[in-house]
């Protein structure tokens, strides 16, 4: 690429740039930060929604399932337990995802803090998967096994991504020292 020109990975063009402008949106930090802000807001809304659902469970379970406390089979308590544990484990995952978006928005998507957050999310996925596997024997619902399998795969993939981000951070640190 000639001096004074940049390659745009989005459109595949090479173009001449002046100070303050770029080819396409690749030099537009406002657009990148805007997307990070939007995702942070959506994750915050998700966290509030999970808390609202958790608080409303004693009223929404009877309304949606027709099961009330003390009824035969204790389905109310089974549903309540599964949904409470799910919400309690999902809330920190949303918190970690929000912290990841903050780091991405700040231009620091690699390194130990990102790797640590991804590992925490992986552990939370595996804990939820283990809970669903046990809940299958309690609820006798095949969906619990399907969720356990999906969450196990997601948790393991988060560990892979955590290692990738850790190594990318090390490469970036090494690259920054050579310049």
Number of helices: 4
Q: What is the element string, with H for helices and E for strands?
A: EEHHHH
Write down how many β-strands occur, each being a DSSP E stretch of 2 or more residues: 2
Q: Sheet bearing the most strands, described? A: 2 strands, antiparallel
Low-pLDDT runs: 17-27
Helical content stands at over 70%
End-to-end gap = 20 Å
Could you tell me the strand content as a percent range? under 5%
Mean pLDDT: 86
State the oligomer: single chain
Radius of gyration (Å):
23 Å
Structural shape: elongated
As laid out across the biggest beta sheet, the strand order is 1-2
SS content category: mainly alpha
Task: Give a summary of the structure in a few sentences.
The protein is mainly alpha-helical. It is built from 4 helices and 2 strands, in the order E-E-H-H-H-H. Strands 1-2 form a two-stranded antiparallel sheet.
């Amino acid at each position: 690429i000639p001096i004074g020109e940049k390659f745009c990975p989005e459109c595949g063009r090479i173009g001449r740039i002046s100070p303050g402008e770029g080819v396409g949106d690749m030099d537009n930090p406002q657009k990148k930060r805007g997307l990070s802000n939007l995702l942070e807001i959506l994750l915050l809304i998700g966290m509030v929604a999970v808390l609202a659902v958790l608080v409303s469970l004693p009223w929404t379970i009877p309304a949606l399932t027709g099961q009330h406390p003390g009824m035969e089979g204790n389905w109310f308590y089974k549903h309540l337990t599964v949904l409470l544990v799910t919400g309690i484990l999902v809330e920190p995952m949303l918190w970690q995802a929000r912290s990841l978006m903050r780091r991405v928005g700040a231009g620091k998507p690699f390194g130990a803090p990102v790797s640590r957050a991804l590992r925490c999310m992986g552990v939370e996925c595996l804990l939820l998967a283990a809970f669903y596997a046990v809940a299958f024997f309690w609820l006798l619902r095949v969906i619990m096994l399907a969720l356990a399998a999906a969450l196990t795969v997601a948790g393991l993939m988060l560990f892979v991504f955590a290692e990738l981000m850790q190594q990318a951070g090390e490469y970036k640190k090494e690259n920054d020292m050579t310049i």
